[in-house]
Write a structure and sequence with these properties.
Elements: E1 13-18, H1 24-31, E2 61-64, H2 77-87, H3 95-106, H4 121-135, E3 139-143, H5 151-168, E4 171-175, H6 179-182, E5 188-192, E6 198-202, H7 204-210, H8 212-217, E7 241-251, E8 257-267, E9 271-275, H9 282-289, E10 297-302, H10 319-325, E11 326-329, H11 342-352, H12 357-370, H13 386-398, E12 404-408, H14 416-431, E13 435-439, H15 443-449, E14 452-455
Parallel strand pairs: 1-4, 1-5, 2-3, 3-4, 9-13, 9-14, 11-12, 12-13
Antiparallel strand pairs: 5-6, 7-8, 7-10
Helix pairs in contact: 2-3, 2-4, 3-4, 11-12, 11-13
Length: 461
């Protein structure tokens, strides 16, 4: 991000947009006083909040980070929400009321002593927002606050944020690709240009009416402008079965099942889309189908996928056997990064399969181009934007050409171009006869991939 200049008035509600990698998260970190000094990077110009360095205003700015895990501090829900208040010196008798109010506002209906480690990704997002709302900051900064939430949760959180800023008069800046959801709350839209500067700045109507074509070309989601991709049909009724689950119960911790009694057939050459509310066990089911979690009860068996040496159950296969049979894209991209550069990351899987150096180079170059990562080939994966990390995590799995691809929120954090590239790439995998299992809250992903819907209701436990 460079050459960016603007003033935000007290009480403004700003939607901050731009292509993946344009510097939106970096700008929010600067507003929160978290960019550090010259030893942590290069900078010029200034950012001021109420006429001062943001780092000087303790408690004045509340920031919810893009990665919900990064906002979890303590081991229990109630303690975590209270943490910020305690550090600001809020009178102890006020804190329980603030905690209860914040949890209610974001719709996180769990016990105060619930371990934070047992929350789903979407629940952790609600937890992070609750912790910031409890502090009642004058400037509220939200970095993709609803990216992992179910549709009902998106509306709940948006409405909670709206009530909080309306009641307190706080200034609000939100980074979010779901423009249509947040626009009713916003008074202003600022769009960063990936090449530097501000691409557009004005009221929502001025920006989206006057700059629609330019914004869409830059990768910004423009309300009412669909992507130009085909919609796949589902699998034929007599399609072969790749994976079969019978009497399946799944558990993240090995002790408490979150789903029981599941009977599923995952067809060949099609997509199976897992949907449902936060905490319903979608990610746990996906990891179990992928062989990365053992079945709590029942079984998952490979049918048309070649069995491992210990039989047809993926949970008993070795990591090398899984490599070419079932590839998994985790909800958190950083959980699967191993190398120092993007190029090296993409080569890890093919190298483990003893592919030739020449073949690996061709494969890596193709993936870099298709997912718009070529300019970042020498960058450290952990320094990428959230959307770029997601595209890289998908590419690392595709690099080994597995028979089955299991993806948890594959389009999280994507601008219009990144979303289109990822969905088109998954459609191509399906056309080649591969199996795609996708956990998603994105109705458009489900629609474009077609296939069977696996709808999970509230969790069993």
């Amino acid at each position: 991000m460079r050459d960016v200049s603007f003033d935000i008035a007290a009480g403004d509600r700003v939607l901050l947009l731009g292509a993946s990698g344009a510097g939106k998260s970096t700008l929010l970190a600067g507003m929160a006083g978290l960019l550090g000094g010259d030893d942590e990077g290069e900078g010029s110009g200034s950012i001021e909040v109420d006429g001062e360095d943001p780092a000087a205003g303790r408690g004045r700015v509340g920031l919810v980070l893009q990665d919900p895990d990064a906002g979890v501090v303590l081991s229990r829900v109630g303690d975590d929400v209270a943490f910020g208040c305690e550090n600001l010196g809020v009178p102890p008798e006020e804190i329980p009321g603030r905690v209860a109010e914040a949890l209610y506002a974001v719709g996180l209906d769990v016990a105060l002593d619930r371990p934070t480690a047992r929350l789903s990704g979407g629940q952790k997002q609600r937890l992070a927002i609750a912790g910031v709302l409890a502090m009642r900051p004058g400037l509220l900064l939200l970095d993709e606050p609803t990216a992992n939430l179910d549709p009902g949760g998106v509306r709940e959180v948006r409405d909670a944020v709206g009530r909080a800023v309306t009641g307190s008069g706080a200034t609000l800046v939100v980074i979010e690709h779901r423009t249509e959801v947040w626009l009713p709350l916003m008074t202003r839209v600022i769009v960063l240009d990936a090449d530097g500067g501000v691409l557009a700045d004005g009221s929502p109507d001025e920006v989206f009416t006057g700059h629609a074509d330019t914004l869409a070309a830059a990768g910004v989601w423009v309300p009412g402008r669909p992507v130009d991709l085909p919609v796949l049909e589902g699998a034929a009724p007599d399609a072969a079965v790749a994976l079969s689950a019978r009497g399946l119960a799944v558990s993240r911790d090995g002790r408490t099942p979150v789903r029981r009694g599941l009977d599923l057939d995952i067809p060949v050459g099609a997509a199976s889309v897992i949907t449902g509310p936060n905490g319903a066990g979608k990610s746990t089911l996906a990891l179990t189908l992928a062989g990365l979690l053992p079945e709590h009860a029942g079984s998952v068996d490979a049918v048309t996928v070649a069995p491992g040496r210990r039989g047809p159950r993926p949970s008993r296969w070795t990591s090398r056997e899984l490599l070419t049979r079932i590839g998994t894209v985790f909800q958190d991209p950083e959980h699967q990064f191993l190398a120092a550069t993007v190029r090296e990351e993409l080569a890890v899987g093919p190298a483990a399969l003893k592919r030739s150096a020449a073949d690996i180079e061709v494969l890596v170059d193709d993936l870099l181009e298709r997912l718009d990562l070529a300019p970042l080939a020498r960058a450290n994966p952990f320094t990428l934007s959230g959307g770029q990390k997601r595209r890289l995590s998908v590419a690392t799995v595709l690099a080994t050409s597995p028979d089955v691809i299991v993806l948890d929120e594959p389009t999280f954090g994507q601008d219009r171009r990144g979303w289109s590239s990822l969905v088109a790439l998954l459609q191509a995998q399906i056309a080649q006869g591969r199996v795609v299992v996708a956990v998603t809250h994105d109705a458009e992903v489900a629609r474009h991939l077609g296939g069977r819907r696996i709808e999970l209701a509230e969790a069993d436990a």
